[in-house]
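Incident log, support desk, overnight shift.

02:14 A customer reports that sequence design results differ from what the structure should imply. Their input is reproduced verbatim below. On-call engineer (initials T.W.) acknowledged and began investigating.
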């Protein structure tokens, strides 16, 4: 759909092309003061521990009330409180299990899917701990109590972590709870890392500066200075307490990287290395040993077999249900269009589908009937880069058309394209033939899948992103497609359409 801007938690949105200035909400001069990022991280961990204690105790108390008071399955007397006592006694063990699952390490709680898996594992182990302690004390718990405890703890902790994630994102976006870092390597990769972190503070990083041996530019990125050479890294980090280091792997020699990482790790400093694999989902990467080398294995994308059947089934069911539910809206929109301006209700336009196959995309007409003829005269007013045409105050749009576009109602007829198999509910934007003529070989790869009504580009800033971002987001989807990704994009589409942010 015409889904407006949303902050993507598909957390792998590509870095921007041009290095922007560092936001005003964070310090611009890293050497003017001593930075202490560690206390913010400690406060975040303490907040998570306290919240976990509260929700776990609530899960244990709720399970006791359900099993004992309502169902009387914990004892024959109906007055046995040993289950609640034993459960609360194991709380420190639950916290230890959570720590073992890295649920208090802020580096591992950014991705919702990954954190959910860790929460489920931790709650299952916590349930086993309660069973073992109860068994050791001679108290045989019914299975229903253990299952209820596991489900209650899992649901409550997942809900709590979602609230915490939203709170952390809001704090980071406002310049708080940031982890200060120095980037080793001021080559193009290092500069893109700095630019991305500057424009996406919700990731939780603020770049103090660069260390590099091959440049003398005092500011490799606007607002991010060159702090010294690679040999100065240890001193710079020590002078700025709580700072860690990100190594741009393509910008630092392998031997220097190994020595630098060892020296910093010996001092208790966190070190992160880029993989040089841009725009590949981290879930497809597996690190394994190959002799004395750690090798990154990239899982292939599987689009055929049962996955293709599942996607097509989901498209047909979703489009069919959508058309039935939207039929009253379509009828009202059709009447409004005919009363507002001359011309047909539907607008048909040739687009390029999978494997370069052309098809007629359907939309409700939102422009005057001769809009295509007027396009050449408006070319000089184009506000988008690349082959795209965008114009916020397009004079060809009718009064009713503005409303239809704002609400994305004009896109509903494309559900028929989905039923016909020409489009999918989720996929890259269907391109015009003249746009594809300007594509390079890389961008042409987006034609390996069906275009979609909504996609990663649409929910990440339909009319507010550059053409390079448009390219990267669509290619990221093609290269990393999964059913889970489709569901996540659809979930993002609904709120951003309702909030009407970024609509053209």
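02:41 Re-run completed on a clean worker. Output:
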């Amino acid at each position: 759909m015409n889904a407006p801007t949303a902050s993507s938690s598909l957390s792998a949105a590509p870095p921007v092309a041009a290095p922007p200035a560092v936001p005003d909400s964070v310090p611009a001069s890293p050497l003017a003061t001593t930075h202490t990022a560690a206390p913010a991280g400690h406060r975040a961990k303490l907040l998570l521990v306290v919240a976990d204690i509260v929700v776990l105790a609530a899960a244990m108390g709720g399970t006791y009330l359900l099993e004992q008071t309502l169902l009387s399955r914990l004892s024959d007397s109906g007055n046995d409180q040993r289950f609640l006592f034993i459960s609360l006694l194991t709380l420190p063990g639950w916290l230890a299990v959570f720590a073992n699952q890295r649920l208090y390490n802020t580096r591992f709680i950014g991705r919702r899917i990954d954190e959910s898996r860790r929460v489920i594992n931790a709650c299952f182990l916590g349930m086993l701990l309660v069973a073992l302690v109860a068994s050791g004390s001679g108290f045989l718990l019914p299975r229903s109590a253990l299952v209820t405890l596991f489900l209650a703890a899992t649901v409550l902790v997942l809900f709590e972590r979602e609230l915490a994630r939203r709170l952390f994102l809001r704090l980071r976006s406002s310049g708080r709870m940031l982890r200060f870092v120095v980037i080793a390597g001021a080559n193009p990769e290092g500069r893109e890392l700095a630019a991305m972190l500057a424009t996406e503070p919700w990731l939780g990083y603020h770049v103090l500066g660069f260390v590099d041996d091959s440049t003398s530019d005092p500011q490799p990125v606007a607002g991010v200075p060159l702090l010294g050479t690679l040999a100065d890294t240890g001193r710079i980090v020590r002078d700025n307490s709580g700072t860690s280091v990100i190594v741009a792997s393509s910008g630092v020699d392998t031997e220097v990287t190994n020595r630098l990482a060892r020296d910093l790790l010996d001092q208790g400093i966190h070190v992160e290395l880029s993989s040089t694999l841009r725009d590949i989902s981290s879930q497809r990467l597996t690190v394994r040993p190959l002799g004395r080398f750690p090798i990154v294995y990239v899982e292939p994308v599987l689009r055929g077999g049962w996955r293709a059947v599942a996607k097509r089934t989901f498209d047909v069911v979703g489009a069919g249900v959508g058309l039935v539910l939207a039929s009253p809206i379509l009828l009202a929109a059709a009447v409004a269009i005919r009363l507002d301006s001359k011309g047909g209700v539907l607008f048909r336009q040739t687009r390029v589908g999978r494997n370069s196959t052309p098809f007629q995309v359907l939309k409700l007409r939102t422009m005057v009937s001769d809009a295509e003829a007027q396009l050449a005269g408006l070319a000089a007013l184009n506000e988008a880069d690349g082959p795209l045409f965008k114009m916020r105050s397009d004079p060809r749009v009718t009064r009713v058309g503005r409303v239809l576009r704002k609400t994305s109602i004009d896109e509903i007829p494309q559900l028929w394209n989905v039923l016909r198999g020409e489009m999918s509910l989720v996929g890259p934007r269907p391109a015009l033939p003249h746009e594809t003529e300007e594509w390079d070989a890389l961008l042409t790869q987006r034609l390996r899948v069906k275009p979609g009504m909504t996609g990663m580009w649409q929910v990440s800033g339909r009319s507010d992103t550059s053409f390079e971002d448009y390219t990267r987001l669509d290619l990221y989807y093609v290269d990393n497609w999964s059913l889970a990704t489709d569901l996540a994009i659809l979930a993002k589409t609904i709120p951003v359409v309702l909030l009407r942010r970024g609509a053209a």
